[in-house]
Design a protein that fits this description.
Blueprint lengths: L1 E5 L7 H14 L4 E5 L5 H14 L4 H19 L6 H19 L5 H9 L1 H16 L5 E2 L19 H11 L6 E4 L2 E3 L5 E3 L5 H12 L3 E6 L20 E3 H10 L9 H6 L4 E5 L8 E4 L4 E2 L4 E15 L7 H13 L3 E7 L3 E7 L5 H8 L3 E15 L3 H8 L4 E6 L3 E6 L1
Parallel strand pairs: 1-2, 1-7, 2-4, 3-4, 7-9, 8-10
Antiparallel strand pairs: 5-6, 8-11, 9-10, 12-14, 12-15, 13-14, 15-17, 16-17
Helix pairs in contact: 1-3, 2-3, 2-5, 3-4, 4-6
GO molecular function: aspartate kinase activity
Organism: Sediminicola luteus
Protein name: Aspartokinase
Amino acid sequence: MRVFKFGGASVKDADGVKNVVNVLKEVGHENTLLVISAMGKSTNAMEDVVNAYFKDKAALSSAIHEVVKYHNDIIMDLFENDKHPIYGKVKALFEEVQGFLAWNKSPKYSFVYDQVVGYGEIVSSTIVSAYFNEVGITNNWLDVRDFIKTDDNYRDATVNWEGTQKRVTEGIDRSRLNITQGFLGSDENNFTTTLGREGSDYTAAILAYCINATEVTIWKDVPGVLNADPRYFENARLLNNISYREAIELAFYGASVIHPKTLQPLQRKEIPLKVKSFLNPKDPGTTVGKGIGIEPEVPCFIVKKNQVLMKLSSLDFSFIVEDSISELFKLLHDHRMKVDLIQNSAISFSVCVDNKFGRLQDLLDLLKSRFKVVYHEGVSLYTIRHFDAESILSLQNGKEILLEQRGKETVQLVVK
């Protein structure tokens, strides 16, 4: 059985949904499980609903209306019959969102976030499934929350592999075309959890692992895995083949095509991963697999923007050693800071972090009681895998370098 994952860009409008049908007609859809993301930027729109709920109740109705209208417009373009049952199904789903917000008593943002934002995937996959049936592609819609079980670490849940394996083994009919959602799971109380932004790729890998899939294909609006993000770098080149190890390295450093967690379960069972274009589905794309190196051998550029660089120094010129570093990492963990680079000397410790949960100020207040702290917000972290002199010079040109770190295969630059 194969697993296909279609991201938000592939189903952002009616033409996109129709194109997914064309892709399946070209490459086949027998014994396939489809993982569908939220449509277009609707995850952002659902986040606006959550933010309005907490910060601006007067804007809540308008925020929900925008999401509903966006999906209804797609439905109207897909279904000629304005009495089609899909209208009622989608209306009922958004009424569930409104009902939850009406009775919810939890003040916890992350909990509310997961209960609300996850409807982007539920609605999207419901529309896609209904359209497939409309055009003669019979399918089975599955609620992924019935299968992927997690802890209750909302917005970044950890998978319960044993519970997930049992449900997938018992509950998925492999003889049919199945359609489900990415990004989502559920905890032991059956509340919705999410696997982190861009977690739909990870969902595909989890399900592939549990069903012993023959391969996973992630369908993107790019030809495959490129050696650089074409939004930020000119002359990006397609990587035809890369090993699991290399792909994990690229994902760890922030390559946006593959989610960092996606490759680990695939590598454990040596399930090949293909990254292909939904615009040109017959093109070969990129294959990620066991022991196939990287081809062609070219420098790979990765950039993470809006990072925070902190330099900590001891107040009394004492060494920053194991006890201090252990305490620092505990603070970073407690404040949910994603550490992207560290560098330390005898009396200083520099760290570049992603403040995605907005808890920087609380962390700084604690650090300033123990250390001298200098920090820079809004910096960019550039990483070059398989660097050469020319590739480094191309990044250094005209930029203020705040920190540089080199290894055998990788160089990292923090740039203002």
